[in-house]
């Protein structure tokens, strides 16, 4: 199906009728407009992606307000529970209420911290391991990931910090991580490994999955706009995620490498330069 899609051509046909010496003659022109059509589709997809991003940004602002408003009643619940515990020190139900309230409070704190970092427009020094921990923390609420995926990670200690815009790097991480989750929808064994590393003058992270893998003939195309192997029935998209991710990393003078085996999984390695 993907092979046939790549062979699709778009043509334009125009016909004109003229009379010459009392005879009707038709003149026609056939033009290959495949490239023009593809550019139109790319523009349309980009516009749709920008609309989606704007909607998500608006939704993010609303969520931030909602989360802020949760703090007040949550603190009241925690305060009253701790007050009651003074009279019922051995009541296990009160202990569960306090434990759940503290857990929710930490979740809210983490979410607000993530929103604050993502909204920063100026570059700042980033600790890669801290960045990865925060990003993974926010996936604890992704039901498919939480209930079906095994997470393994190894973070190399002592990595140098580097300068970047946090929100841009977060977008790169999430594009690759979400793709890994999507690729394992039908996999028998679902595992994602996330590792950090230092190599030469680069630091970086690696995200590997045990999903369906990518056919060799498509590996050179996955960073092209509008190219996607996702099914729209699951979580498909416009095929812009990896193109945007590569653009972000290119601006940072880094690179993204990918290796894949069909039926076994895919690994993405992101390299980011740092200054000594």
Q: Give the DSSP E fraction (strand runs of 2 or more residues).
A: 15-25%
Number of separate strands: 9
Terminal Cα span = 49 Å
- Give, in spatial order, the strands making up the sheet with the most strands: 4-6-7-9-8
- State the low-pLDDT regions, or none: 231-238
Helix/sheet category: alpha+beta
Share in helix:
40-55%
Order of helices and strands: HEEHHEHHEEHEEHEE
Put simply, the count of helices is: 7
Q: How many whole angstroms does the radius of gyration measure?
A: 26 Å
Taken from the alpha-carbon principal axes, the silhouette is elongated
What labels would you give this structure?
276 residues, single chain, 47% helix, 7 helices, two-stranded antiparallel ribbon, 24% strand
Kindly summarize this structure in a few lines.
The protein has about 280 residues and is an alpha+beta fold. The protein is built from seven helices and nine strands; from the N terminus they run αββααβααββαββαββ. α2 runs antiparallel to α3 (about 90-120) and α6 packs antiparallel against α7 (about 240-250).
Write the layout of secondary structure elements.
Blueprint: H1 2-6, E1 11-20, E2 23-32, H2 34-87, H3 92-118, E3 124-126, H4 128-137, H5 143-148, E4 150-155, E5 162-164, H6 166-183, E6 191-199, E7 202-209, H7 241-251, E8 255-261, E9 265-273
Parallel strand pairs: 4-6
Antiparallel strand pairs: 1-2, 3-5, 6-7, 7-9, 8-9
Helix pairs in contact: 2-3, 6-7
């Amino acid at each position: 199906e993907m092979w046939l899609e790549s062979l699709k051509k778009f043509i334009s046909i125009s016909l004109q009728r003229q009379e010459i010496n009392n005879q009707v003659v038709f003149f026609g022109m056939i033009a290959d407009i495949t490239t023009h059509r593809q550019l139109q589709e790319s523009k349309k997809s980009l516009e749709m992606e920008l609309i989606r991003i704007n909607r998500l940004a608006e939704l993010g602002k609303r969520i931030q307000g909602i989360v802020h408003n949760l703090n007040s009643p949550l603190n009241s619940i925690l305060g009253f529970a701790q007050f009651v515990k003074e009279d019922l020190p051995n009541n296990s139900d009160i202990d569960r209420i306090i434990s759940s309230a503290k857990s929710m409070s930490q979740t809210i704190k983490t979410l607000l911290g993530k929103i604050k970092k993502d909204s920063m427009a100026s570059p700042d020094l980033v600790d890669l391991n801290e960045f990865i921990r925060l990003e993974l923390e926010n996936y604890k609420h992704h039901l498919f990931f939480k209930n079906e995926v095994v997470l393994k990670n190894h973070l190399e200690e002592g990595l140098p910090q580097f300068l970047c815009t946090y929100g841009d790097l977060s977008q790169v991480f999430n594009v690759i991580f979400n793709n890994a989750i999507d690729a394992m929808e039908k996999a028998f064994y679902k595992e994602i490994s996330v590792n950090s590393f230092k190599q030469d003058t680069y630091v970086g992270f690696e995200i590997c999955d045990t999903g369906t893998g990518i056919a060799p003939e498509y590996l050179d195309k996955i960073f092209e706009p509008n190219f996607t192997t996702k099914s729209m029935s699951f979580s498909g998209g416009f095929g812009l995620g990896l193109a945007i991710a590569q653009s972000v990393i290119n601006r940072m003078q880094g690179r993204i490498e990918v290796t894949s085996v069909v039926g076994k999984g895919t690994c993405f390695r992101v390299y980011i330069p740092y200054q000594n």
